[in-house]
UniProtKB/TrEMBL annotation:
<dbReference type="GO" id="GO:0008235">
    <property type="term" value="F:metalloexopeptidase activity"/>
</dbReference>
<dbReference type="Pfam" id="PF04389">
    <property type="entry name" value="Peptidase_M28"/>
</dbReference>
<feature type="signal peptide">
    <location>
        <begin position="1"/>
        <end position="30"/>
    </location>
</feature>
<dbReference type="InterPro" id="IPR045175">
    <property type="entry name" value="M28_fam"/>
</dbReference>
<feature type="domain" description="Peptidase M28">
    <location>
        <begin position="245"/>
        <end position="455"/>
    </location>
</feature>
<dbReference type="InterPro" id="IPR007484">
    <property type="entry name" value="Peptidase_M28"/>
</dbReference>
<dbReference type="GO" id="GO:0006508">
    <property type="term" value="P:proteolysis"/>
</dbReference>
<dbReference type="InterPro" id="IPR003137">
    <property type="entry name" value="PA_domain"/>
</dbReference>
<feature type="domain" description="PA">
    <location>
        <begin position="134"/>
        <end position="221"/>
    </location>
</feature>
<keyword id="KW-0732">Signal</keyword>
<dbReference type="Pfam" id="PF02225">
    <property type="entry name" value="PA"/>
</dbReference>
<dbReference type="InterPro" id="IPR046450">
    <property type="entry name" value="PA_dom_sf"/>
</dbReference>
<keyword id="KW-0645">Protease</keyword>
<protein>
    <submittedName>
        <fullName>Zn-dependent amino-or carboxypeptidase, M28 family</fullName>
    </submittedName>
</protein>
<dbReference type="GO" id="GO:0004180">
    <property type="term" value="F:carboxypeptidase activity"/>
</dbReference>
<keyword id="KW-0121">Carboxypeptidase</keyword>
<keyword id="KW-0378">Hydrolase</keyword>
Length: 470
């Protein structure tokens, strides 16, 4: 790791049902792996995870309503998790790093007849001039992800109106800028809700002012007179801040065989982030605490990570991976990522490792099987670079994970297969103030906790299990 600020060491307490350390033949290890996976899945419950989610909600309530990276709410969340992991006997590292924190100071979109349209500035947006920017609109074709969506000079000198989906906000901004647009306004793909925020992922991606509005407002603008100018005011103040990843690993395992499971702990500044991503963090944390009851090493080193600044562009996980030596990267057998595992209109998705780093396709198969054991038919989704698996895959490390959906809309087929409401977003409170304790599906949380526990339990004794096809 590049930065190790503080290591907290605590002795392991007496552990019930402890699987003993020591060399074991392959058959014995396979038996231990199955036993550990089974007991861990039984012990890792929604009740346990909900205790952590309740703590995250209380922290947000006492910290300005959010747990964003660089804020007191995130620091308190990291301390809460780190203290529990230390007490459970893990070797805990607090890995601090600096980043460019953004605070929005202006966000307004006004039509020429004086009507205000609610808009949210994207993190790392370029600022409009002090007196705002006035220009007509132009609707991007498709989803604004390719040059063909901005034909000829149709967007030159205009504000591009772009639908959300398929590619990153940064990619939309880049294409709009290349077409000569002076700003980009992205309207939501979800039918309900208000304006939405997001991130361009990096300060260098702020090539245009970019903001998010509701779908209803976007469609209304697109259907109106595009030559009538609108006024856009977007501004953010930049400030260098420090934040922290929490890393916890077992003792007594093989340091050259490392299995990792992680989730981002930070929220957006718009809300407490209980589903995104308190749910994944609580799932990883609870699995780690229950693993400490049953495993003292003898197989792999199991390392858990609670990343920061994911919402600012995967900064925490990227800082960690960038700081690994070649040998440290080679030691990691697999990285498992859990981002949003309790969406209220839940889908059951497993990242499709086909064509990704070697072993990733096998991880997809195993996680799919863990859901199938519960009677759930998972749907594969591509790695799209939107979560903390991305730096691992870029480094050639096998990765996988499960996910219950964000702003996308549940289809009729999915509703028939999984229940829930077709045509509605998987998480109607994605990146919003209402992402609180009421924005969870307990059954989805329970199902994904079993996935995490089964995966960690198996790979603790058999670190290549997940990357080997069955």
């Amino acid at each position: 790791m590049r930065t190790r600020i503080r290591t907290i060491i605590a002795p392991l307490t007496a552990l019930p049902l402890l699987l003993l350390v020591g060399a074991a033949p392959p058959d014995a290890r396979a038996d231990r792996a199955e036993r550990l996976a089974r007991v861990l899945a039984e012990d890792t419950t929604a009740d346990g995870a909900l205790r952590h989610l309740t703590a995250f909600q209380r922290i947000a309530d006492a910290s300005g309503g959010h747990r964003a990276a660089g804020s007191p709410g995130h620091e308190r969340s990291a301390r809460y998790a780190g203290e529990l992991l230390t007490a459970a006997g893990y070797r805990v590292d607090y890995q601090r790093f600096g980043f460019s924190y953004r605070e929005t100071t202006a966000e307004r979109l006004t039509t020429d007849d004086g009507r205000d349209i609610p808009i949210r500035a994207m993190t790392y947006t370029a600022n409009t001039p002090d007196d705002g920017l006035t220009a007509p609109l132009a609707v991007a074709g498709g989803l604004g992800c390719t040059p063909e969506d901005y034909p000829g000079d149709t967007h030159r000198g205009r504000i591009a109106l772009v639908e959300r989906g398929d590619c990153t906000f940064a990619a939309k901004a880049e294409q709009a800028a290349a077409a000569g647009a002076v700003a980009a306004v992205v309207y939501d793909s979800a039918p309900d809700g208000g304006p939405f925020g997001g991130t361009l992922g990096d300060p260098d991606a702020g090539v245009l002012p970019v903001g998010g509005i509701s779908r209803a407002d976007g469609l209304a603008l697109a259907a109106g007179d595009l030559d009538r100018p609108v006024r856009l005011d977007l501004a953010q103040r930049a400030e260098d801040r420090e934040t922290v990843n929490v890393l916890a690993e077992t003792r007594g395992g093989d340091p050259d065989r490392v299995v990792m499971a992680g989730a981002h702990l930070d929220s957006v500044a718009d809300g407490p982030g209980i589903n995104d991503n308190g749910s994944g963090s609580a799932g990883v944390l609870e699995t780690a605490l229950r693993l400490a009851d049953h495993y003292r090493g003898g197989g792999a080193t199991v390392r858990f990570a609670l990343w920061s600044a994911e919402e600012s562009g995967l900064l925490g996980s990227r800082h960690y991976v960038d700081g690994l030596t070649e040998d440290e990267r080679a030691a990691i057998s697999v990285y498992l990522n859990f981002d949003m595992i309790a969406s209220p209109n839940a889908g059951f998705f497993v990242h499709d490792g086909t064509g990704a780093a070697d072993g990733s396709a096998a991880v997809t198969g195993h996680l799919t099987e863990y859901l199938a054991e519960q009677g759930i038919t998972a749907e594969p989704i591509p790695f799209n670079g939107r979560s903390d698996y991305a730096p691992f895959l870029e480094a050639g490390i096998a990765a996988g994970g499960s996910h219950t959906g964000a702003e996308g809309l549940k289809t009729e087929d999915q509703a028939a297969r999984w229940g829930g409401t077709a045509g509605a977003p998987y998480d109607p409170c994605y990146h919003a103030a209402c992402d609180d304790l009421g924005n969870l599906d307990r059954a989805a949380l329970e199902a994904n906790l079993r996935v995490i526990a089964r995966a960690v339990g198996h790979s603790a004794w058999l670190p290549d299990a997940l990357t080997t096809p069955r």
